[in-house]
Design a protein that fits this description.
This protein is mainly alpha-helical and 167 residues long. Helices cover 86% and strands 0% of the residues. The protein has five helices and no strands. It has helices at residues 2-32, 38-65, 67-102, 107-137, 139-156.
Length: 167
């Protein structure tokens, strides 16, 4: 099994080498001299790309299967997490004073503000049906009041004369 994986990796390496260093340059030279087509160059490039992807996938798979990589990863994970906690604590201590100096809101304050806005939105939505009924009833009264205000402003500026209402 391991021998077949090694042979497969060697075959893919040979394919990558052949595609990138023999087929692709020859196709490019033939196209440049007018003896070939652009399609041949594109096919050679894609063949090299596919072979390189297969080779890299095989290499990564074999790396993940090695016990040394697993041991190294498991041992270094604890240290990496400790450094992450240290970095978070250091940044929190450093920026706590900065936020107060610049007077920017902290994440907790921003979150509290969002929750307040959400609660207000829910209150408005709960009262919206009652507001809609009242606005329909008082729509005519509001329009008359707006007209009176506009006329009062015009009269104060000496632009309009008092209007008589049709009622």
């Amino acid at each position: 099994m391991a021998e077949s994986k090694g042979m497969q990796g060697m075959e893919e390496l040979a394919t990558v080498y052949k595609s990138l260093f023999i087929d692709f340059p020859l196709a490019g030279a033939r196209w440049g001299l007018g003896m070939g087509e652009e399609k041949e160059v594109a096919e050679a490039a894609w063949a090299g790309y596919d072979a390189a992807v297969r080779l890299s996938s095989t290499a990564v798979d074999s790396l993940y299967r090695t016990p040394v990589f697993g041991d190294f990863t498991s041992r270094s994970l604890d240290g990496l997490l400790r450094w992450q906690r240290f970095g978070n604590a250091f940044a929190g201590a450093l920026f706590a004073g900065l936020w107060q100096t610049v007077r920017l809101p902290t994440a907790a304050e921003t979150q509290a503000l969002r929750e307040d806005i959400r609660a207000l939105r829910e209150e408005v939505r709960a009262q919206l049906p009652g507001l809609m009924v009242r606005s329909k009833e008082s729509g005519a009264a509001q329009r008359e009041e707006q007209q009176e205000i506009a006329q009062g402003k015009l009269r104060a500026n000496g632009i309009a004369k008092p209007m008589r209402s049709a009622a």
